[in-house]
Specification:
Layout (H helix, E strand, L loop, with lengths): L11 H9 L11 E2 L11 H8 L15 H15 L9 E4 L2 H12 L8 E6 L4 H8 L3 E8 L5 E2 L6 H6 E7 L11 H14 L2 E5 L15 H7 L8 E6 H4 L8 E5 L1 H14 L5 H12 L2 H22 L12 E5 L8 H12 L1 E2 L1 E2 L19 E5 L4 H18 L1
Helix pairs in contact: 2-11, 3-11, 4-5, 4-10, 7-8, 12-14
The structure holds pyridoxal-5'-phosphate (PLP).
Length: 403
């Protein structure tokens, strides 16, 4: 067996199941889950129609590069959304969701034969970053996000010796779980560090279209172009239809950026066998070409967050994020900051599932902060508004019952 498999940590939802094992939720309340970040708004009809209208695609093998028309549709979206000029042949690749792309990119980029191959991850973080790094033979250096600076990742504490051995850095903007959007100044700092130490930056942007400020989130490639880096040196961005278009089951996204990275990535993917089905390509073209459903989707999230956030802010430390569909809230003092107890007792008393924040972070090396997710919970507001409001009302009652 591959010995690296033994380095993988239990996935947060596995830990949540273990935490909740043996609890009988209060039967007076129907169950509501804010645990998993799976979009639950309806899939737009135009995507379903494109899918069923392209079944002839079942009869042919797709190429890993994808149809030229799909890459051109994505090129067009990048131009409309970010005012970017990206080459559809050498700088764009379709992927089967950003999860597999994040994983595969690490396998392409990391040279495990180099001493102390290191991957830098935000902390808390999307769990795939860690598994991708470990299975590529690297070790992970976690950099905490700073609650006092809108959860910006605090790179100032990373020692030079760590930068020097870093091969890949994962960025998540808008972030999961805190929803923070990186500024141009933060991007410029990372570009300077990448130039100095030669590491690749993988920008995970799958929440980019669900935002609450007037200004749409800055993209990594956009930040590069605004900094005069028109070749996107050492940078790739990953975007997905899962959240933007409510199609997590379609498994569709793309990677775009530095042609010098896309080329070996294509080679890796050819052998890995990750071509996108022709049917999924057809549905993806329809989705990327349409913005009306994205605007509707965002409007729905905005209305939902506008109702739920103030309810919860009355009883716990929580604020509207920049973007994304999570609330990242502090556990009230009455629970002594114990996010596991909060999650367990809430399920028992009110039949609502929330994810303990400590499951999304690690106690990081060189940090005196301990686990930066501890004392917080993540709530995914993916259900319809009425259900999310009901969950929030129960959480309010739960917290007030402890006061
Ligand atoms: C931060 C982040 N990145 C990537 C993904 C993967 O999304 P997908 O593979 O559906 O594109 C998720 C899914 O929850 C996520 O939260």
């Amino acid at each position: 067996m591959n010995p690296l498999l033994s380095k993988l940590q239990p996935y947060p939802f596995e830990r949540l199941r273990a935490l909740h094992a043996g609890i009988t939720p209060n039967p007076a309340y129907p169950p509501i889950s804010l645990g998993i970040g799976e979009p639950r708004h309806a899939t737009p009809q135009l995507i379903k129609d494109a899918l069923t209208g392209s079944l002839a695609g079942l009869a042919s093998y797709p190429s890993t590069l994808g149809e030229p028309k799909l890459r051109e549709t994505i090129q067009d979206w990048l131009r409309r959304r970010y005012d970017l000029k990206v080459d559809a042949v050498t700088q764009i690749l379709p992927v089967n969701g950003s999860r597999e792309a994040l994983f595969a990119l690490a396998q392409t980029v990391i040279d495990p034969a180099k001493a102390d191959a290191t991957v830098i991850c935000p902390n808390p973080f999307y769990q795939i970053y860690e598994g991708a790094a470990l299975l590529a033979g690297a070790s992970v250096y976690f950099v905490p996000s700073d609650a006092n600076r809108n959860f910006a990742v605090d790179y100032s504490g990373v020692p030079e010796s760590v930068w020097a051995k870093t091969q890949l850095l994962f960025v998540c903007s808008p972030g999961n779980p805190a929803g923070a959007v990186m500024t141009l100044a933060e991007w410029k700092l990372l570009f300077d560090l990448s130039d100095r130490y030669g590491f690749v930056i993988a920008s995970d942007e799958c929440y980019s279209e669900i935002y609450f400020r007037d200004e749409p989130p800055l993209g990594g490639l956009q930040a590069a172009a605004l900094s005069g880096r028109h070749d996107f040196k050492n940078l790739v961005a990953m975007t997905s239809l899962s959240k933007r278009s409510n199609v997590p089951g379609l498994r569709s996204g793309f990677v775009a950026g530095d042609a010098a990275l896309i080329k070996p990535f294509l080679l890796y993917r050819t052998y890995h066998g990750s071509a996108m089905s022709p049917i999924v390509q057809a549905a993806s073209m329809a989705a990327w070409a349409d913005e009306a459903h994205v605007v509707d989707n965002r409007t729905k999230y905005r209305a939902k967050f506008a109702q739920v956030t103030p309810l919860l802010a009355g009883v716990m430390s929580v604020a509207l994020p920049d973007a994304g569909f999570y609330l990242w809230a502090g556990v009230p003092e009455a629970f002594e900051g114990d996010d596991e107890t909060f999650s367990r007792d809430l399920l028992a008393a009110y039949n609502v599932v929330v994810l303990p924040g400590s499951y999304l972070a690690r106690t990081a090396q060189g940090s005196n902060l301990g686990n930066p997710g501890a004392g917080r919970i993540r709530m995914a507001l993916v259900a319809e508004t009425a259900e999310c409001v009901e969950a929030a009302q129960r959480i309010v009652q739960f917290i007030q019952s402890k006061d």
